Amino acid sequence: MNELQCSRKMLRLFQLLSRKCSVLPTRRIYLGACDGGHLRHAFRTDDANKDDLPLVDDSIAAATALWNKEELFARFKNLLNCSREQSEMLYKANKKALRVFAPKLLTDNIEVLRANGIDDGFIFENPRVLSTPTDELITKIELLRELPAVNEFKMLAPFLKASLKSIKRMIHVAKEETIPGGNRINYISERTGTEVPTVIKFLSSSIRVYRITLDKFIANLNICLSHLDPADVVRHLTVLAYAPSSIQERLKALENSPLEKIKPWMVRVPDIALSKSFEAVIEKGRQPVFKDSVTGVWFETYVMKKIESFLGCTEETSREIYDKCKGSVYLCDNIEFLVSKRVLPSMIEKHSSILTAKREDLQQKISTLESLNCLRNINDVLPMCVLKVYQLKKIIKNLNNEQLDSSDTNRIYYFSDSTGFAPSEVTEQFARRTFMFRIPKDSFLENLKLFMQHMNREDILADLWAFKYSPGIVAERITRAKQVRGKKLMPWMVRCPDVVLEKSLQLTKESGALLGENETIVEYFCKRLGFDREMANSIIIKTPSVRNVRITKVKKVIDYLLDELDYKPHDIALNPRILMHSLHTTKKRMEQLKDIGCRPKSLIIVCKSQRQYEMFVKEWMDSKERKKKVQQIG
């Protein structure tokens, strides 16, 4: 009850003041600035947290200048000529202060800052400065104006973000000490070759540098500049607060570390970069999270050195493994375990992605693989470790229950022996296409036999999807394709739609009619263009992609250029790209050039992009117009 009565009395007092005084004095009293919470409770309402600031009654509005949100935005615009988005940003940054202080605080502070030469850009970059009570803000400005050897006050604006106590201490120290340049800001600028505004930017967030004695400040700056890059020192001025002996000790240790470059923040991090600490981190089996970057770098270096010792590899290889595994905490333990199981270092390097698995999971996978019947070497099936534990168990169980023609083999080794590939290569592809373990045994054996009879082994391993089709369909497709393509069969012919196969076979027939049974595109060039073999080969070397163009399209382009446009084979040899270009576009452009009276000496312009071609046409037309004018004048 006593608090409520006190609040009511204070409310009546403010109402009386508002009637007596039409204008408040320059040094205003703001709600909440007094010690205690009675004024806050007196002026708060249930809607205090809403965007529109409420008006309790006319007398309070006059006394405290409470405006709604839109009126505040209008005043922002009048003062700063800012956009709606900028006004919204200022409002949100100071919303917490508006629950305690009158909104007029923000506009008063803007007027104070602008009157003292502070740019509007500073206000938008540091909007929370407006939440400072006006009296305190004026005091900060007055204090900063007393800083010795400052040419322009507005450069010191970043210090307004610091507390009043810190600014007072800084000004007091600056007045008492004698230092080259007049103050520590200018001294750092001269020693590091950095512009004064940049020094102020970083020093304002490291203002405790002024709590260091002058001798210690100069000594630490000298030490840091002798070992570190000046620009880095400016960005990390807090390092100057440490004892000179500690800085020298850490810098000496860092010089002997494997780090390529030393930076100031490395001087002030905890010294936990010890092997025992890292061993403990790895032993926990959880991905480490370090509070500082340098510890992470040291941990990374430690892990890479262990990888090198386990595998006998180079630093580049250990870096590749580390990056590929994203620094997994299980790396060292998993490598050590695989080496103990006689896995070859080359296999670990090639399949390093399996090292990211948890130790328990990897050990379980290797144990499952060791239970495979007819296993010749663990390296043969290592790529299967990329699978989940449950997948691997199911596959191994099925392989163990399957009986092939020979009792001393399984599906992996059977495919390997039949195709001549290394078992590890087969396993790697099978792990990517796990359906190879689910295909019925009879289909697997019969399809493999058919493929080996009619296709190259590299094509078979690269395209295993064809094994999913029944042997009857495979045989029928091979027969159809063989009638047209002869020995050049591919697995995709087995699994593609009928329409695609028919189109491919039709194109093959047309190409065969042009080339003959054993003729190549080089021989076709010799015959059609009248070149010798050396000249034809040079065309292919100059533009290798010509080999991939259908011979039927090549014939149509050559016929059009030689027979209809009267170009010479030499023109085609100079610009073989024309053979890959769309015939439709070539005809369209050649007709357009003919209409404007242009016959290009080189075919290269026809192959250019649409933008380049249009530029050529425009330049040609402009040149033609200029010639006309010259002739008329003459």
From TrEMBL:
Belongs to the mTERF family. The keyword Transit peptide applies. Keywords: Transit peptide. It holds the Pfam family mTERF. InterPro entries: MTERF, MTERF_sf. One of its GO terms (cellular component) is mitochondrial matrix. This is Transcription termination factor, mitochondrial. One of its GO terms (molecular function) is nucleic acid binding. One of its GO terms (biological process) is termination of mitochondrial transcription.
